[in-house]
Amino acid sequence: MKQIFQNIWKVTRREIGRMLLRPLYLFASIGVMALCTFFFLSIMKRGAPERMPVAVVDKDQSSISRRLCHETNATQSVQIALITPNFADARLAMQKGEVFGILEIPDGFYADIASFKQPTLHFYVNNAYTVGANTAYKQLLTMCNLTSGAFQREVLRKKGLPDHLIMERIQPIAISAHLIANPWGNYAIYLVSTILPGILAIIVLMLTIFAIGFELKMKTSNEWLEVAGGNYTVALIGKLIPYTIIYIVLGISCNVILFRFLHFPVMGSSGRMMLAIVMLVFAMESMAITIIGALPTLRDAISIGALYGMLGFSLSGFTYPVMNMLSVFKAWTWLIPLRHYYKIYVNEALMAGPIENTIIPMLSLAGFFLFTLLVNRRLHNAMIYNSYPLK
Hints:
Layout: H1 2-21, H2 24-43, E1 52-58, H3 63-73, E2 78-84, H4 87-95, E3 101-105, H5 109-114, E4 122-125, H6 130-158, H7 163-170, H8 187-217, H9 221-227, H10 232-261, H11 270-294, H12 298-315, H13 327-332, H14 337-351, H15 356-367, H16 369-373, H17 376-385
Parallel strand pairs: 1-2, 1-3
Antiparallel strand pairs: 3-4
């Protein structure tokens, strides 16, 4: 046993030397993760998009239309970038990507309201920009509904109705909405908390494939095995130790930044969230070994790993619900470690659900280690015989 630990340390020391000689390893892990964290936290520092530019086509040019424009521009979500009586100008601005939505106020808007007719307001949104268009649409719709309610209130007041009866007529059904776990409607709480672990997962996958595959490509795997005393398991453990430490530190640091310093909600156990990021690292390393073992050629393994890693974002369920996917894709979600991490995140951070809802995803992450057993012989033979193709 003492000799095994000594061999593990020899392999680890050898790998640390290789890491220091090739800055790619540190930049692709620490550097990329730091840049991505800074990028996503910067663009979503306010939590939700604000001041989305919109255009107003004011064909009425009345006091009520100008008041509607002023109140719309005073909201936090949208900003009127263009006011014009000509619809063609607003359409051109939308085609250039300068505005996300257009509000058209028809001619005779004020006259129709005064004569108790029903004027029509037209919305146009550019759904090529999903978040910006949806934000603009919801805010414009809200402002128009408020304007309609305010006018009805003034008319009923002039008729002598008390305020409590006025509100019952304007809004006969009162709505009490409760946004569970995220009452602020903060996009960062949903997105960044999963995007950053997803990026870490891809880093773990690609760098682990590269670290092992590069040994095969350069035909240094015999030297690697020799340092490990000819023991395949010792060779893998010793090589992955320095990388694993870096990945775990990066993952825990990311969670600390989000949940401690930025005060993202953790309704359940923060300890289980930390354990989940550690399990995600081990699961992605296991899948990396499986891929490079099944395809012990660096270029092929890198290609398959990139495809597998990017599919993880789509199949994890945080952008599109798994329940609405086709059955074949629902089955594939079980092979995506990020999917299980996301389920833990929802249960622990957002919902504070029972621990039973966390145990199954945790066991699923641990189960990815079993995939490595399927390729041990193939990878071991590739390391011994240096069977990497010359072309």
